[in-house]
Amino acid sequence: MVTVRAPATSANLGSGFDVFGVALDRPADVVHVERADRTTIEVTGVGSQYIPTDPDRNVVGAVAEALDAPAHIRIDKGVRPSSGLGSSAASSAAAALALNELYDRGLSREELVPVAAEGEAVVSGEAHADNVAPALLGGFTVATDEGVTTVDADIPLVACLPEIAVSTRDARRVVPDTASMEDIVHTVGRAATLSVGMCRRDPALVGAGMDDRIVTPARAELITGYNDVRSSALAAGADGVTVSGAGPSVLAVCGERDRTRVAAAMVEAFDGADVAARAYKTRVGSGAEVFDI
Length: 293
Ligand SMILES: Nc1ncnc2c1ncn2[C@@H]1O[C@H](COP(=O)(O)OP(=O)(O)OP(=O)(O)O)[C@@H](O)[C@H]1O
Ligand SMILES: N[C@@H](CCO)C(=O)O
Known about the structure:
By secondary structure, the chain is an alpha+beta fold. It folds into two domains: 2-151 and 285-292, Ribosomal Protein S5, domain 2; 156-283, Alpha-Beta Plaits (2-Layer Sandwich). It contains ten helices and eleven strands. The protein is globular, with a radius of gyration of 18 Å. 56% of the residues are buried. L-homoserine binds next to helix 5. The site of adenosine-5'-triphosphate has 24 residues, from helix 1, helix 2 and helix 3. It is found in: Cytoplasm.
């Protein structure tokens, strides 16, 4: 049996839609795989009652098929589904790494990114790699059709998860088809600023780089209380705030000493909108880890 822990992730980071992503140091999924003649799936943990065990509908089934690696796959969910924290990606990445080890396929983590992205295609309709890349490689990742580049950035973050669900598939439907040249130039500038901030481990630059006029405003409409949560986090000292992935989680970047105050402000603002929420005081973390073989 092979066991792998894969982290939650936060994709887009505002200005990097379908390109940027970060691994978080918590929460995480843990996946156990054992050889079998055909793939069977068992799911426990947070939100498991909403996750199918049919290999054709669970992301790990697509990963097992892509690797031609039938197995009994037990998923212990630590990342809530439909959270905006890469729940499907955590399982996809963990299964890809675990089955690669179990069947000795010898693929590198970079080579496993498109394999794990096949899992994402099952649930969102597109094989976007911006969650599975950081889940496998760790750090801050830039995923394009040329491949993935990574930065080992140590940046404090707060991920605030409200008790509402937004599916990636629904959230992708509200993304506009076009954008003005002014908004494109604004967002490219912020994306470049964010990348420099990650390289310099500078939360203020990362926060400034999160601003986006193209996708985020449409996604914010799906999250009750988002505007109050964002302004409360900024008032509490956050350097930047944006929608985490497809939402509903809200991600704030801040200095280490401000995390507790920012986390409390975000939860309180959601409470003011009659939405229960919990906040993870986290940071950019490492990728999936193989525990035992
Ligand atoms: N192993 C799995 N883990 C989590 N969700 C899964 C899994 N397999 C299938 N799903 C389905 O995928 C959906 C959750 O994926 P979705 O992309 O919408 O949320 P997310 O991954 O938490 O968000 P985001 O991709 O924005 O970070 C749920 O409908 C769930 O039933
Ligand atoms: N880039 C994807 C990430 C989903 O987590 C989206 O926003 O739809």
